[in-house]
Amino acid sequence: MKLEASDRVVIIVGAILLFISAYGIFGVSQESMNRSGLYPLAGHVDSVLGDVRLRDPEKSHYVDISPNMNVYQSDRVFTGENSKTVIELFDSFTLSLQEKSLIIITGKMGEPRIHLDHGKFQGQLKSSQPVVLEFRDKEMILEGDNSTVEVWSEGANSYPGVRAIKGSVKVKIEGKTHILKEGEKIQLEGKGLFSGGLTVKWDKNREKNKPPSLNKKVSDTSQNSKAKVRAVEPNATVSIGTYPYPKRKTVFLHKKGGVIFVAPKRTCDRPCHLVIFIDSENRLEEDFDRGQRPIAQMSIGQGMSGWVEWTLQEQGELPLKGQFEVRPHSTDFFKQALSGGKPIEILD
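^ that's the sequence the OP posted. Answer follows.
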């Protein structure tokens, strides 16, 4: 059978396109395989707020990260001002990296190891899995039974500090074990430039450092707080148009403060737990029974400016999450919200 010239051209072009397609698919999968092979998978990104970037060891520049992106051993994760991210290290540790921080993930799946270059992170320790914190040429092992821990460092040449936010935390370093009760913290200090040893500075003022109690109707972190949050009584009359409220990324602009209601959904189908953070600080944790409306009231002070995040966890369901901004009513903040296409609400 003879083929016309036009038929031969179609066949040749089709073969070329098929080759290019196959090569592209192979190239992507091969790149993924190479990275997974050279640098083991460590976890994935759970949530992102603001300017958060990642750099893998095979590249010389940082890229923006997004939820559900995988992270690998040797990845660097950076957060900018007013930014944070939650990273789940598979089967072992979930950490919340706070603003202006940099970590290097030095472990792999099931073996959490973190190098904190500078900044701060919080995370929940599992009873079956210790977390190794690397700094300078040393290691610190953190253990706890579903305890929440906070770790900070002022820079690459400084020593880290550790605080037990919830429950007790066991800190092992240089063959010694220190047990922090809830609210206590320690700060490591060097003995000398060439000694290589460490001293441990304790702060056992638990009342001063202890976070707000859980399941209270009113929760405030300090006397000078610019925003107070409380749960609304179940039978209170509060009119909410659509749920969840506020809409994601809403910007509230205020002149002298005001009131904002946070209502993730109309009612809880199962027992649920509401948590509200203001600039990464825990301001409210409240339990609601089945059939109750999960709603909280924020009283905004005149100087309030920051990010608010909430999480509603129902038994057996994936958590609902939201975030919004509260800013002074100025031309600059109004233009920023408008240019970003964000919903704007003006508080009286």
